[in-house]
Amino acid sequence: MLRRLKSLRRFFCVAFQSRQPVGQRVKSAICLLLLIIGFNLLVSPLVCTVFNIVYNWAFGYVIDENYGRIAPESVSNRDQVKHETICSSRSVPESCFSVVDHYDSKKNEVYRVLCTEGFDDEYETMVRLREPPGLDFQNSDTRTWKIDHKAISSQYIAALIAAPFMVGTLSLHNAMNIRKTMLNIGLGGGSLDMFLYKVAPEVNITVVELDPTMVELAHRWFGVVEDSHRRTIVADGIDVIRNAAKKNMTYDVVMLDACDGNRMFPCPAAVFRSDDVIVNIKKILKPMGCVVMNLLAMEGETMEKEIDTALELLKSHFPVCIKAWLPEDLNIPVVCLPYALQNSDSSLILYRKRFEKASAQLGLRDILKDVLFRSV
């Protein structure tokens, strides 16, 4: 190598000596210029590629090289772009779901939402997108943007997340979550379980989703991952719970946010609101575990009656149930424990303090600042 460098230096010294003919020096200069150009053509793309890889790895962004080539395929207006609509054969009647990126001008943020066709103002899932440096919603193809899984945009999802930390089933110290397990019935866009996957990576998460179309959308548009700590099973949640009870499988957390097409009381789906299902859910809980459930009844004369009936069902099987009141949402998150509390009043005070601490440490303080938990 040293000999080659000396030879190269000798070439340049000889080529540009003043006693060389002018034509020879011009020829040498042209050769040097071509050498530099050739070096740039060969090496520069490699350098740029390496730079992009390192940059993406370090900052989590995708260099938006596809803008202008694939963006026209989307149907868009000034503040939103619809990427895809896909229909599910599992629902009766058939339901179609759309993936839409929406620009919120008040917050100057971009969100990706999953909505059912015909109910465009009601979102199945909402996640925030991370804006790459130097780009914005108007001049970029947001399909290449990354999902910010640590940003929760739904108040009821945030309350469901905080509940296991509030009652002490999950710990804010991740080392304490080793070997902790969670069964989540209902995937949607995966915002809930992907948040926990990011902030509590030691928790082993199994998600059950009935509709393979929803799983496909979650993988393609919402950044849902599959690995040893998080997996998605396409199955009926009722069957999974029943089989787990038969096999004596247990979980620290059972999360239930699965809905049906009932216009008056969609969540949880009617099939989950029965004694035998609740009995099986209790069977698959570990002694200090908890079940977290989302209740949703639409406004109307029977709303309170439906909610009260569901709460009474839970109370008939669990010694302790605590519900959340959400000022911005009709959803009612409920957490139930398979064990009794010696002093419910002092325990509730402790839970409220834990809830405030968990909200702050999980980055959910703003969205949960007005949420109140009360005993059922």
TrEMBL record:
GO molecular function ontology, one term from the record: methyltransferase activity
Superkingdom of the source species: Eukaryota
Transmembrane segments: 29-55, 153-172
Coiled coil: none
GO biological processes: methylation
Keyword Manganese appears in the UniProt entry: no
Pfam families in alphabetical order: Spermine_synth
Keywords per UniProt: Membrane, Methyltransferase, Transferase, Transmembrane, Transmembrane helix
InterPro entries associated with the record: Lys/N-term_MeTrsfase_sf, SAM-dependent_MTases_sf
Family, as annotated: Belongs to the methyltransferase superfamily.
Protein's recorded name: PABS domain-containing protein
